[in-house]
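Hallway conversation turned thread

IA: we were arguing at lunch whether anyone had actually written out Cysteine synthase A end to end. Turns out nobody had. So, for the record, here is the sequence (334 residues) and right after it the structure tokens. Reply here if something looks off.
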Amino acid sequence: MTVSGIAQGFWGAVGDTPLIRLRRASELTGCEILGKAEFMNPGGSVKDRAALGILQDAVDRGLLVPGKPGVVVEGTAGNTGIGLALAANAMGWQSVIVVPETQSREKLDFLRMIGADLRLVPAKPYADPGNYVHVSRRLAEETGAVWANQFDNLANARAHEQTTGPEIWAQTGGRIDAFTCSCGTGGTLAGVARALKARNNKVRIILADPEGSALAPWANGGEVRATPGSSVTEGIGQAARVPGNLEGAPIDGAEVIPDAEALEQVYSLLIEEGISVGGSAGLNVAAAIRVAKALGPGHTVATILCDGGARYQSKLFNPDFLREKGLPLPHWLS
């Protein structure tokens, strides 16, 4: 951002997102519950920050040169791919994005629209060589492209430690008692946690996890073991491993949030406060409410509003899909 306040393209427009007071959640708990509006990044999600951090690191290491031919490859649930593709476009690079075919149609259509070379693969567990992460790694190795490796590339968490965390601290005036966030790569939670803990070690860091993920048991001091159930949320949770970005992060505990509880927040924010978010943001807010209730009135809890609801119209706002999954329908879609 320049002194005049004019951003220099995509790279200059990422970050400095508003922190929004969530009225209903705050009134329900007697706390201040604040959502970092990451859906307002130019690529529409919190993953723009990770994409920028990873690509800037590649530039710093001489792997990519602005204005000269280059290719970046990544395996992603969609949002990191969108951020990488747009950031690459701005520098004259190409992007090859490997995505499980189960992801929302809206994200897949958007990736095609912005010029990414989209490669769809069957959804397979991480232990399977056909898993989208392994496919993207092999593709990068075979072609000599840069592999973004968002799960284990520590430039991801570093981007949040340098930007997202300090922004939250400044926006709250340092008056923050807890932070909740779900994890896919772990970059957002780890980076923000380190930034906040460095300023006040008493800030509680709580990992928000969907059912069927193994991260909550691990964060609560146990083994990497998936909890019962499954989730319709995309891009968060890990069934069998802890990503490199999350290793060593200063986490105080975890909350497992069922889909119905997360979707209640998605629909409430939309119809009562005019804030459109996706499933992971709903899960984050649900976790923030739990933490606020445990802390008691008068505390401040911040969380991440990861992306917008429009990326999930065919799922979270589709009555047929919701009925099929046994999930509650918002009254205006019933």
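OS: looked through it. The beta strands are 19-21, 32-37, 71-75, 94-100, 117-121, 146-147, 178-182, 204-210, 253-257, 300-305.
IA: good, adding that to the notes. The chain has 13 helices and ten strands.
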